[in-house]
Amino acid sequence: MSDFRRAFIVSDRTGVTAEKLAGALLEQFPNINIRSKFHPFIDTTEKAQQLIEEIKHFSERDGQRPIVFSSISNNEISQLVQTAPALHLSFFDAFLFLVTRGLNYSVEFTGGTLMEVEYQQQGADLDKVRHSL
């Protein structure tokens, strides 16, 4: 097992936001050696598949799952990237539901996997979920 953790920062755009947010989160762990790889413009299934292969390679070589921080707005590509052997942290999944709740406004999200949809598919009581946040 490696004495460091590998992090992939992935976006289907420039990735500046994902890079800044991931950096701020990783700074909270100053005693862990993090090796970050930045991957902007993962905007096709072909690029996503290449990224998955790279993540698999490093997962096997390092002996541990990498962390993937993503800001991918395209649902198909986001779900594809999430098949890689890694801990996946999507900024859209983490925040969009909370923003829509805070604004008391529904949006039709065109990318990622909205938390509300996941809860409905798992049969959770959505009202309890909403009030617990």
Topology of helices and strands:
Blueprint: E1 5-11, H1 16-26, E2 34-39, H2 45-62, E3 67-71, H3 75-81, E4 87-90, H4 91-103, H5 115-121, H6 126-132
Parallel strand pairs: 1-2, 1-3, 3-4
Notes on the protein architecture:
This protein has 133 residues and is α/β, with parallel strands linked by helices. Helix content is 47%, strand content 17%. The chain contains 6 helices and 4 strands, in the order E-H-E-H-E-H-E-H-H-H. Strands 2-1-3-4 form a 4-stranded parallel β-sheet, sandwiched between helices. Strand 3 (67-71), helix 3 and strand 4 form a beta-alpha-beta unit. Helix 2 (45-62) runs parallel beside helix 3 (75-81). It is globular and about 45 Å long. The model is unreliable at 112-126 and 129-133 (pLDDT under 50).
Task: Write a short abstract of this structure.
The protein has 133 residues and is α/β, with parallel strands linked by helices. It has helices at residues 16-26, 45-62, 75-81, 91-103, 115-121, 126-132, and strands spanning 5-11, 34-39, 67-71, 87-90. The radius of gyration is 16 Å and the shape is globular.
- What is the global morphology? globular
Low-pLDDT segments: 112-126, 129-133
- H/E element sequence: EHEHEHEHHH
Tell me the number of helical segments per DSSP (H or I, 4 or more residues long).
Answer: 6
Structural class: alpha/beta
**What gyration radius follows from the Cα positions, in whole Å?**
16 Å
- According to DSSP, the number of beta strands is 4
Question: What helical percentage do the residues reach?
Answer: 40-55%
% residues in beta strands: 15-25%
Strand order of the largest sheet: 2-1-3-4
The largest sheet, given as strand count, sense and whether it forms a barrel, is: 4 strands, parallel
Q: What number is the mean pLDDT?
A: 84
Distance between the termini: 36 Å
